[in-house]
Amino acid sequence: TPRLRLEQLIKRCKKKDVSAQKVLYEIYRQKLFSICLKYTASYAEAEDHLHDVFIEIYQKIHQYKGIGSFEGWMKRIAINKAIDRYKKKTTFELAQHKENSLIDEVYLDFEEPNIPFEKLLQFIQELPDQYRLIFSLYELDGYSHKAIAKQVRISESTSKSNLFRAKQRLKKRISDYLIQTRKEEVHE
Questions:
Q1: Beta carbons of 22 and 57 less than 8 angstroms apart
Q2: How many whole angstroms separate alpha carbon 107 and alpha carbon 153?
Q3: Following DSSP, what letter does each residue of 115-144 receive, concatenated?
Q4: Structural contact between residues 24 and 13, judged by C-beta atoms closer than 8 angstroms
Q5: Are 99 and 51 in contact (CB under 8 A)?
Q6: Can you tell me the distance from the alpha carbon of 42 to that of 51, in angstroms, rounded to the nearest whole number?
Q7: Is 176 helix (H, G, I), strand (E, B) or coil?
Q8: What is the C-alpha separation between 62 and 137, in angstroms, rounded?
C-alpha cells in the first residue's frame, strides 16, 4: 500500500539512505516548491529555499514520529523556514501600526477570471518581504493573525496592518494589469 511504502521510505531516510532521500525529493519537490514560490521574491530564490527546506527535512526526519500527515509535517518545515529566512533577512523593524477597523473590511477578489495564476503569483512575489510573508501566511496558508504575530514576533495589529497594505498593493497591481490587458485587447 502507498502508506506502507511511505513508511519504508521514511525509515530509509532516517538511516541517511541517499537513494531514499532522492526518491523523497522527487515525490514532494513540486508540492513543496509551490509553497516556496509563495514566500519568495523570485523563482531562483524559491529554488534556494526548496534546497534549504529539504536539507532541514533530512536533518530532522528522525523527529517525525508517524503521527499526522508527513506531507503536512514537511509543509510546516517549509513555512517555518520561510519565516526564519524572513527574520534573518529583515534588518529593519516592521512599522507598528494602531488597529485599523478598515483592515477587516478589505477584500481582495482572487477569483478574477482574467488573471492567470502565474501573473497573480508574480504580483505576490513583487510585494515587499514583510507584506509577502504576512499575506502568504494569512491568505494562502490560513494562519491567524495571533499565530502570525507569535511566529514573526510582531503585534497582531501589525500583522493586520501589513495584510491590509499587501492587499492594497495587490489590488492596485491587479487593477493596472486589467486596464493594460483591456487596452491591448482594444488595439488588436
A1: no
A2: 25
A3: S-HHHHHHHHHTS-HHHHHHHIIIIIT---
A4: yes
A5: no
A6: 14
A7: helix
A8: 26
Residue that has been written with the C-alpha cell 531514499 in this structure: 20
Name the residue type at position 131.
Y
Strands (E), the chain: none
What are the φ and ψ backbone dihedral angles of 90, each rounded to 5 degrees?
-75, 120
Q: Which of 127, 161, 146, 139 is CA-nearest to residue 40?
A: 127
**166 DSSP assignment:** H
User: Which one is predicted more confidently, 51 or 100?
Assistant: 51
The amino acid at residue 184 is E
pLDDT digits (tens, 9 = 90+) for 40-76: 888 888 999 999 999 999 999 999 988 889 999 999 9
90-119 average pLDDT score = 47
Residues 6+ apart with CB under 8 A from 186: none
pLDDT tens digit sequence for 135-150: 999 988 889 999 999 9
Asked if residues 139 and 170 have their Cβ atoms less than 8 Å apart, the reply is no
Nearest to 138 by CA among 171, 170, 105, 162: 162
C-alpha distances out from residue 64 to 17, 79, 182, Å: 16, 16, 51
User: Could you tell me the sign of the dihedral formed by the alpha carbons of 144, 146, 152, 157, in that order?
Assistant: positive
Q: Letter for the amino acid at 120? A: L
Closest to 85 measured CA to CA, from 125, 146, 133: 133
